[in-house]
Automatic annotation (TrEMBL):
<keyword id="KW-0812">Transmembrane</keyword>
<keyword id="KW-1133">Transmembrane helix</keyword>
<comment type="similarity">
    <text>Belongs to the BioY family.</text>
</comment>
<feature type="transmembrane region" description="Helical">
    <location>
        <begin position="56"/>
        <end position="75"/>
    </location>
</feature>
<dbReference type="GO" id="GO:0015225">
    <property type="term" value="F:biotin transmembrane transporter activity"/>
</dbReference>
<feature type="transmembrane region" description="Helical">
    <location>
        <begin position="87"/>
        <end position="107"/>
    </location>
</feature>
<feature type="transmembrane region" description="Helical">
    <location>
        <begin position="114"/>
        <end position="138"/>
    </location>
</feature>
<feature type="transmembrane region" description="Helical">
    <location>
        <begin position="7"/>
        <end position="25"/>
    </location>
</feature>
<dbReference type="InterPro" id="IPR003784">
    <property type="entry name" value="BioY"/>
</dbReference>
<dbReference type="Pfam" id="PF02632">
    <property type="entry name" value="BioY"/>
</dbReference>
<keyword id="KW-1003">Cell membrane</keyword>
<keyword id="KW-0813">Transport</keyword>
<keyword id="KW-0472">Membrane</keyword>
<protein>
    <recommendedName>
        <fullName>Biotin transporter</fullName>
    </recommendedName>
</protein>
<dbReference type="GO" id="GO:0005886">
    <property type="term" value="C:plasma membrane"/>
</dbReference>
<feature type="transmembrane region" description="Helical">
    <location>
        <begin position="144"/>
        <end position="172"/>
    </location>
</feature>
Amino acid sequence: MTLTTRDLVLMGLFAAVMAALGLLPQFVLPLGVPVTAQSMGVMLAGAILGARRGFGAMAIFVALVALGLPLLAGGRGGLGVFAGPSGGFVIGFPIAAWAVGLLVGLFRRPTSVPLTILACVLGGVGVLYAVGIPYWVAVTGNSLSAVLAIAVNFLPGDAIKAVVAGLVAVTVRRGYPALSSR
């Protein structure tokens, strides 16, 4: 499948949405992983754009971060980000967006709020944690149990972000049904 100009514009738009979400206030949990609104952007990209374009949007964002643009929360950017404990989560952004989009597509009901929220939880939280937590363990040298003890503090916020992303995605898809065609 080829990408159309429209696809590229939408992917660029969602990369910009991710950058804007990085401007929102953040706080840092012990062991150096920040809590940001950007994981919600991952869920929105997958749920609204679908697997392929959601992956592309997040891949653009990650590439821009790697090039040094300060697009992550707190104005972080550059290759050094990937050497820190949150690097795995950043690497997981495209994979998680793809998973959310795939699940929304598999459910075949892109305007179902409960199913879209479920896709955001499984793909946007579950997949992101599956990539980010092992990376966090590897980079910090902390035990898995120590990292999980901290990561569990993210769950309430991530659950709220999944609900918000699900509601927003369904609202957008209802308002713009042409987005559902891909």
